[in-house]
Design brief:
21 helices
Length: about 725
């Protein structure tokens, strides 16, 4: 029979790859074609086809092939498939691949249950490997029965996705044994997103759903093995096909034509790429179109192409390709064509093998640390899963290190501190991978040094009682300053640092205070009167009266005034490389440096700059000048790296200057916020004295417990060598 597939069918790619697995009495399961010679299915389907126990663990003999048929391509032709020894994963009860303990009857889920069969000959004409993609929550999928008929089919939607299986609710169709091993097809994305492995069973039989009050039982459940689990179980699996990318393809062709200047260059790269991807090379017929088509049609093909082109150019161009503008442009275009993939297959497998030996870093905490801006990241089950998530994110603007490398470096730092033997291998992996991602070795070294310093500080702090969490409010005022948008963050000593509330439309200050109170109640469970609250504002808005904002509250605890009865911290949201260098120098000298006064004689910018330059170690400054000049002086203090500035919003003069200097003289810099808080409380407690200096006292405090990213740039991002 000639091919039966209707080319106009929306499911044609699935039908061309759908395989029936035959037993003595007919179809016993299904499979999916992944290359012209390889078929992927469940191990228990092969066991059933050979008349063995479905949970048998011994490798099927190659002398007894499995009968296969592609019913939608050539329904009369029977093919012979033999299990590939390296890709035989029988069902097992434990996650460890070396422990082949069969699962108990009816126990779900279990591990393994995968096998790749090698055909004795190429698949019939008209058959094509199926395109694969990771599944997407909420997308409906369909599965075909092993008889080869388009009906019956199953319609299902993923409910829970985790290793080792994805659970799906059946929306239509009847669950039957013949679906096992068959592909789940996402019609919207035109790709296979997993293979069916089991249905909900009791004592080996499908469970009868319990009826509900309206007489309808709950939807049946089926289970599937997703692409990430398939790749984790079968590390030797050749890269599967993917739907060919369209966006960025022409740009990729253009830049490769400039980098690969001769036909021999193109042919060499095409032969290497075909060998790595397990595909046939076009030989003398290879051209840039064939090279790009091969890369974009295979999972991780684009990173594999970059790896090969990098090696090819390194062999022919002294100094390495990373120095060229065309190579940097190729990296940018690759992120358009293949946005969630950075690592070639070999590099990803090497990393996964290393991460399996790392046990000092919590995967969820790693994601929160590296991706504090990301919303809705999945909960990773292990570090390899976390690395897959990090791989899909680009670096934040201004940061040279992609999140993937940041995460691996942090893991290495923790492993080294714990005495782990894998730290050196992780560092070697980063050194080899970073240039291929366009990251200079100096950037890696600086990031590792700063990550080590942060870890050392955190380890020392962990030996002391944990500090209470901070609630941080990043204010974005709208002129003239009575309406605001904001983001509210929570930062705690256990590594949590994330956005918990945002407001994109402008609201009045009472709404901001109400939101702060909500976060204190629901996110950190801190009492409003004792919580640590920090406002982050840009220099232009340092004079905001945030301590006067009120929330009416209720009868139990009265009003709520953020900033009056707690530690108050106003900080700038801006920093430059030069500012950071000055801030670091002044911070290191805090225990011995004198307090500096900038009074009404220092309102001229040149005078302020000179005073700050001749006192390069002064980190605590008192500003006492006319309110019209305060903004300019405060900005100059920030530019000079000063991190603690005390000033009065209304008054200035000799007596006030002396009072403010006395307030901070001899006080440890870490206690200054509390000193200011007490002065404000004294002013509120003495309503008969409207001139008390604490009533309009303001503080900018950016001490050595430097705010965590992303409310300020990371130190390593500010100390990189300037690009040449």
């Amino acid at each position: 029979m000639r091919p039966q597939v209707n080319p106009a069918s929306a499911d044609a790619p699935l039908l061309r790859a759908f395989v029936s697995v035959l037993g003595q009495a007919g179809p016993v399961g299904a499979a999916v074609l992944i290359t012209p010679r390889l078929v992927l299915t469940c191990a228990h389907v092969v066991n059933s086809a050979r008349g063995r126990d479905r949970f048998a663990t011994t490798l099927p003999s190659r002398a007894e092939p499995v009968a296969l048929r592609l019913p939608h391509v050539d329904r009369e032709r029977v093919l012979a498939g033999r299990a590939v020894p390296e890709m035989w994963r029988p069902p097992r009860a434990r996650p460890e691949p070396g422990r082949l303990l069969p699962p108990a009857a009816g126990s779900l889920p279990y591990y393994g249950d995968l096998v790749v069969l090698e055909l004795d000959a190429d698949a019939p004409p008209g058959a094509e490997p199926a395109p694969f993609l990771p599944h997407r929550d909420g997308n409906e999928v369909v599965a075909l029965w092993a008889s080869g008929h388009t009906l019956p089919t199953l319609r299902a939607v993923p409910r829970v996705s985790a290793h080792p299986w994805t659970a799906l609710d059946v929306l239509g169709g009847t669950v039957a044994d013949g679906f096992s091993g068959g592909p789940l097809w996402d019609r919207d994305r035109q790709a296979v997103v997993g293979i069916v492995v089991a249905a909900h069973e009791v004592s080996g039989r499908p469970e009868e759903p319990a009826p509900t009050a309206d007489g309808q039982g709950p939807p049946a459940a089926v289970y599937a093995i997703g692409l990430s689990s398939i790749e984790a179980e079968l590390p030797d699996l050749p890269p599967v096909a993917v739907p060919a990318a369209g966006r960025g393809r022409q740009q990729l062709l253009s830049v490769l034509e400039r980098l690969l200047t001769s036909r021999q260059d193109v042919r060499d790269c095409e032969e290497r790429l075909a060998a790595r991807l397990g595909r046939r090379s076009a030989g003398a017929a290879a051209d840039v179109e064939r090279l790009v088509g091969l890369a974009v049609g295979v999972r991780r093909g684009v990173p594999e192409l970059l790896d090969i082109v990098y090696d090819h150019l390194a062999e022919r161009r002294p100094g390495g390709p990373a120095e060229t503008a065309d190579w940097q442009r190729l990296l940018r275009i690759a992120r358009v064509v293949s946005p969630r993939e950075r690592l070639a297959v070999g590099r990803r497998r090497n990393l996964t093998a290393l991460l399996a030996h790392c046990h000092t870093v919590d995967p969820g905490r790693l994601l929160r640390t590296v991706l504090p801006y990301a919303d809705g990241t999945p909960l990773p089950v292990d570090l390899a899963d976390a690395a897959d998530v990090l791989e899909g994110y680009d670096p934040h603007p201004g940061q040279p290190m992609p999140p993937l490398l940041q995460g691996v470096v942090r893991i290495g730092v923790h492993e080294r501190a714990a005495g782990g033997e894998v730290a050196d291998d992780l560092d070697a992996w980063v050194r080899s991978t970073a240039p291929r991602l366009g990251v200079a070795p100096a950037a890696v070294d600086q990031f590792r040094a700063d990550a080590t310093a942060v870890h050392t500080t955190a380890a020392a702090a962990s030996r002391h009682p944990a500090a209470p969490p901070r609630v941080q409010v990043e204010l974005l005022p709208a002129p003239p300053g009575n309406l605001f948008t904001y983001q509210i963050w929570v930062w705690s000593g256990d590594g949590r640092h994330e956005v918990v509330l945002t407001q994109d439309t402008e609201v009045a200050s009472d709404r901001v205070v109400e939101a702060i109170r909500l976060v204190l109640r629901t996110e950190v469970r801190e009492h409003p009167e004792t919580a640590l609250l920090e406002f982050f504002v840009s220099p232009a808005w340092l004079r905001l009266d945030v301590d006067a904002w009120a929330f009416p509250g209720d009868g139990d605890d009265g009003g709520f005034y953020p900033g009056i009865t707690r530690r108050v911290v106003l900080r700038s949201s801006e920093r430059t490389r030069e500012t950071y260098a000055s801030w670091k120098r002044r911070s290191s000298a805090l225990p011995t440096s004198p307090r500096l006064l900038l009074d009404e004689r220092c309102t001229d910018p040149a005078v302020v700059r000179a005073r700050l330059e001749v006192s390069p170690e002064a980190g605590i400054v008192v500003v006492s000048c006319d309110r019209q000049q305060q903004g300019r002086v405060l900005r100059q203090c920030l530019e000079a790296g000063v991190h603690t500035v005390l000033w009065h919003r209304e008054d200035h003069g000799g007596r006030l200057s002396a009072a403010l200097l006395a307030l901070v003289e001899g006080v440890d810099h870490t206690l200054i916020p509390e000193v200011v808080r007490l002065e404000r409380a004294k002013a509120m407690a003495d309503p008969d004295c409207p001139t008390h200096h604490g009533r309009r006292l303001s503080l900018l405090h950016d001490g050595p417990d430097h705010r965590p990213p992303p409310l300020a740039p990371d130190p390593w991002a500010l100390t990189q060598p300037s690009p040449s």
